[in-house]
Amino acid sequence: PPATPQYRPAYHFTPAAHWMNDPNGMVYYQGTYHLFFQYYPKGMVWGPMHWGHATSPDMVRWQEQPIALYPDSLGYIFSGSAVVDANNTAGFGKNAMVAIFTHHDPKGEKAGTSTYQHQSLAYSLDGGKTWQKYAQNPVLKNPGIKDFRDPKVSWHAPSKQWVMTLATLDRITFYSSPNLKDWTKLSEFGEKLGAHGGVWECPDLFPLTLNGKTYWVLIVNLNPGGPNSGSATQYFVGQFDGKTFTPLNDKTKWADYGPDEYAGVTWNNTGNRRLFLGWMSNWEYANQVPTSPWRSAMTTPRELGLRQVGSEIYLTSQPAAELRNITGKTTTLQNVTAKEPTDLTARLNSSTDKHRLTLSTNQLASFELVMSNAAGEELVLGYDQAANQYFIDRSKAGKNSFSPKFVGRAVAPRLSTAVGTELTLYFDAASVELFADQGLTVMTSIFFANKPLTAIKLRSAEGITFQQISSTPLTTEAAS
Ligand code: FRU
């Protein structure tokens, strides 16, 4: 087999070649997770958007499929969602898979109009393999709002209607429909709430329960204006009554504080599980990252939940259980005390840069975990007690001159007030995802080391003891 190109991830989805951005149309149907994605099949930078397509039995092992949607006379195919129309409300057929997406007309944009984004439909009668555009597109015409896009549609059982959550410049607009074709405006949300450092994009709305009570979570992606600059995913926790979203309060919260999770939304049709996937990049430098012949990967799949800390209710994101499908043999160390720099490489049998590391301590203190290679490149991550922040510092972790906006050190507040913690780190060829405090604080960061970072060291000036540290290689190749 041909050699794996440098930076090709082992277990994060990438297209074989060319440009990818947002995950689109994520829907589970008859044992298969469908992932569509913003795709430009003729280039390595953003261009006329198509919907690429991939399928998986477990959101971890992906098979790329033929392109699902091509640009047409109404424009490029921007982001959106997909549903399974079990009751044939749209009349395309029972169990039709229906994609609801934004048509973006580049001619209208160039001409300086403000009405070049509309919502349209396409449907598949063979479980997502082949697609037809609806002949009467668009189904929701632009009312004069420049940024009018990224419809997330799902069935709202209590009010027995489809609800569309749409990003409309600086706010969310909700619409409802009995048949996916005729849409009525319900309400607006957020003009004066949340973070507004950039345009609101790629929203999502779904229920989650906490202690037997149902809450509604509204995800709003934002670009720029994220906590570590550029693109990021904020969310609100509140109630949705079929018409209006009412947040519990106006605190700005982030689903992922790292620089490299964007456009994250959740799968439709997964029952009580709420599963999330994001694009693992940032518009600040996505078009310049040094990978070839593709650009961008998706994050790991994450299962969402709610947790209360003090009087606040937060979203938690944990690596989906399916990631266990790709684990190798775990090496576990007990009671590791780091005061002097402590090299764990040999004791953890660390020889691959694609692995999961978990560290648990019953007394969190400042520490640095240093991943390095023989070339002296270092990715440093850990916790700073004085600032009460987790951090990931990629400033010495390899290539970074491709963009001045490729920020070196990213930080995230620790939200948990517990004395101890467990940190889980998922490393792949060019990325790390940090899950702290059972998913209360999450950070995703990409990096481009010139040689794999396989050496593992701990440093802690104050001293810290981890009751347990374990390392598990991750591979999607069939076990031998
Ligand atoms: C978010 C986004 C969406 C848009 C798509 C275009 O990253 O800007 O708002 O639909 O990308 O590719």
TrEMBL record:
What keywords were assigned to this record? Glycosidase, Hydrolase, Signal
Query: GO MF annotations for this entry?
Result: hydrolase activity
Q: Where is the Glycosyl hydrolase family 32 N-terminal domain?
A: 12-314
Residues in domain Glycosyl hydrolase family 32 C-terminal? 325-468
Q: What top-level branch of life does the organism fall under?
A: Bacteria
The family database entries (CDD domains) matched by this protein are listed as: GH32_Inu-like
Q: Which PROSITE patterns match?
A: GLYCOSYL_HYDROL_F32 (PS00609), PROKAR_LIPOPROTEIN (PS51257)
State the similarity comment.
Belongs to the glycosyl hydrolase 32 family.
The record's annotation in PANTHER family points to:
EXOINULINASE INUD (AFU_ORTHOLOGUE AFUA_5G00480)
- What is the protein's name according to its record? Glycoside hydrolase family 32 protein
